[in-house]
Specification:
- It is a single chain.
- By secondary structure, this protein is an alpha/beta fold.
- It has 2 domains: about 170 residues, no CATH class; about 140 residues, Glycosyl transferase family 10, C-terminal domain (Rossmann fold), CATH 3.40.50.11660.
- It is about 25% helix and about 20% strand.
- It has 11 helices and 16 strands.
- The strands form 5 sheets. Strands 12-11-13-14-15 form a 5-stranded parallel β-sheet, covered by helices on one side. A 4-stranded mixed β-sheet has the order 1-2-3-4. Strands 7-8-9 form a 3-stranded parallel β-sheet.
- A hairpin with a 3-residue loop joins strand 1 and strand 2.
- The N terminus is likely disordered.
- It is found in: Golgi apparatus, Golgi stack membrane; Membrane.
- Its main location: Golgi.
- Belongs to the glycosyltransferase 10 family.
């Protein structure tokens, strides 16, 4: 639609800022303009250096992207029709609000602003300047206005039989990009390393100076019996690709460290993973892992969920944005609640 058409239309126009802690912001325009068989969900973004797609990766918003690429019903259509000149002075830096950005939020009080962050609290910096400015949240928290996990299990769509990858002598595998000795995950690993022979442990990343390319990540992990899906922060509902991709998709049983077991069980079967907190000591955990690896029937039981489910990862920001339109078919009621 032309800008003039939107201005003249009898519609409710609202703006949602999607912000990630690393210099990211998008603005969405949701319009309830009715046309034969279609409603339109507008996405607006400015060219760098003002507004950016998350992590500075820009995606094409071709017509029908929600339906064609992600099978999200075409009740809403996602497009990129125009930009607003009055937003051109808005800036952000390192996830902290600048005066220009805060003033923009406060001036445009008729807008609806949404906070989006997939990071744990420790990476969100000081958010106190944003108090009372945002209307909704979109993140991995289950109590967010829009729940957006890193991944999920979906019903299996084919009759293909899952074959457990062939294992090598590797009992435990861990790929860690930012190793910090004082983190909970590092302390657990250090203890685990005392009770499992070093020849049975494979560690990849800067710490071990064994770099692993993204292309070889899953195939390498798949050779190991267990993968240490240790989150870098223990936070409510914070379960990342370490579980979904590095473990479940790779075909290695996840040993998790993160939220409590009952939180994981909201997303995956209780018999599909091993939780560090299930054991009285790390030595007991190490013993258990060795016992399970030596018992083929018991080990294979951790993969039974593959008979019914597949892993679905959320990695494309367009899909996340499309989910806003899917979740709120009655967008007018949601915006005006």
């Amino acid at each position: 639609l032309e800008k003039s058409s939107v201005r003249k239309a009898n519609s409710t126009l609202c703006s949602i800022a999607l912000i990630v802690p690393s210099v990211v912001c998008l603005t969405l325009y949701f319009s309830t303009i009715s046309y034969p068989g279609v409603k339109t969900c507008y996405i607006q973004h400015h060219h760098p250096p003002v507004w950016h797609w998350p992590f500075r990766v820009r995606y094409r918003l071709e017509r029908g992207v929600c339906t064609d690429k992600y099978e999200i019903p075409a009740f809403w259509r996602i497009t990129d029709p125009f930009s607003l000149k009055h937003m051109s002075s808005t800036t952000m830096s390192s996830g902290l609000a600048t005066p220009n950005f805060l003033s923009t939020l406060r001036v445009h009080q008729c807008k609806k602003w949404l906070w989006l962050s997939l990071e744990p609290p420790m990476n969100n910096h000081n958010l106190s300047n944003y108090n009372s400015l945002f209307n909704w949240t979109m993140r991995y928290h289950r109590d967010a206005d829009i729940f957006m996990p890193y991944g999920e299990l979906v019903s299996k769509r084919t009759n293909a039989t899952f074959i457990i990858p062939k294992k090598s002598n590797c009992l435990v595998c861990w790929a860690v990009s930012k190793y910090k000795a004082n983190q909970s995950r590092s302390l657990v690993f250090q203890q685990l390393n005392k009770h499992i022979p070093s020849k049975l442990i494979e560690v990849y990343g800067q710490r071990s100076k064994r770099l692993l390319s993204n292309k070889n990540l899953l195939s390498t992990i798949s050779r190991c019996y267990f993968y240490l899906a240790f989150e870098n922060s223990i936070s409510t509902d914070y379960i990342t690709e370490k579980l979904w991709r590095n473990s479940l998709q790779a075909g290695s049983v996840p040993v998790v460290l993160g939220p409590p077991r009952n939180i994981y069980e909201l997303s995956i079967p209780p018999e599909s993973f091993i939780h560090v907190n299930d054991f009285s000591s790390i030595k007991a955990l190490a013993t258990f892992l060795s016992q399970v690896a030596d018992n083929r029937e018991r080990y294979e039981s951790y993969f039974r969920w593959h008979n019914y489910c597949d892993v679905r990862m959320y990695t494309d920001w367009r899909e996340r944005l499309c989910n806003i339109c899917m979740l709120y078919n009655d967008l007018y009621s949601w915006v005006n609640r």
